[in-house]
Amino acid sequence: MRRLFPVTDLTAADDRGEWSLDALADAYAYPETDGAWLRANMVSTLDGAAQHDGRSQPISCDSDMRIFGTLRGLADVVIAGAETVRLEGYRPARAREAFAARREAAGQGPAPAVAVVSGSLDLDFSLPLFVSPLVPTLVLTGAGAPPDRIETARKAGAEVVIAGEGSRVDPARAVRELADRGHRRLLTEGGPRLLGQFVAADVLDEMCLTLAPVLTAGDAQRIAGGPAVAVPERFALASLLEEAGFLFSRYRRIRQ
């Protein structure tokens, strides 16, 4: 993997030019900030597809997964929509020795929590994600969620967080609620609808996007869905990496 856009001195590359996890963790470190920082991590094909046959794995690669693991290793919490949890077969985040010292120094637990966004709570609460995580899974929902489903989630061991009125989750409130619980390094992995909601709510700080050198055609979703914003938000390139035709970009929002 080679650096194309200079952002930091990644001298930890080995003889083959591959970066160590420490070097990647330094490159993708969260900025020092008083509040929450929400970054997204997504992959897209050249023609804009965020998935193939309903999943992102077919358009990913080993280096993409290496960055995926690094971003998780740095986060306090990983946020995902209910549909993504179902389609991608989400499991609890695991503790990784490579990030143990870094997380301890930052005052973090051994692994990030997973926060699932669901208004209806139509989730299988018998899955390991809920009953046997290393860190309790959070469920972000609205005040109007079915009471019996809230109770089922709590009995399974999940922490239910009310982050909206009615059956909908307010993205900005979700960020605030997570930050109030000490989760300030936020990572969302989608899906496209959830990312679109964060964009529309004007709370996304950083976009980590892998561009896969493949074409799929078809009608797959883009990385962000939902209503268009009134005025496009401008982001600035922070880093750009390349390997085997895959581009690994990182953009940060330009704050006025």
Descriptive report:
By secondary structure, the protein is of the alpha/beta class. The chain is built from 8 helices and 10 strands. It has helices at residues 21-27, 62-74, 82-88, 97-105, 128-131, 147-156, 171-180, 192-200, and strands at residues 2-5, 37-45, 77-81, 113-117, 138-141, 159-162, 185-188, 206-212, 235-243, 246-253. Strands 1-9-10-8-2-7-3-4-5-6 form a 10-stranded mixed β-sheet, sandwiched between helices. Helix 6 links the parallel strand 5 (138-141) and strand 6 (159-162). It starts with a strand and ends with a strand. Mean pLDDT is 89; it is low at 6-13.
Task: Assess the beta-strand content as a share of residues.
Answer: 15-25%
- Which overall shape is indicated by the principal axes computed on the Cα atoms? globular
Structural class: alpha/beta
**CA-based gyration radius:** 18 Å
Low-confidence stretches: 6-13
Biggest sheet overview: 10 strands, mixed
Number of strands: 10
- Number of separate helices: 8
Please, what is the oligomeric state? single chain
Largest sheet, order of strands side by side?
1-9-10-8-2-7-3-4-5-6
Strand/helix succession: EHEHEHHEHEHEHEHEEE
- Helical content band: 25-40%
Distance between the termini: 33 Å
Integer average pLDDT: 89
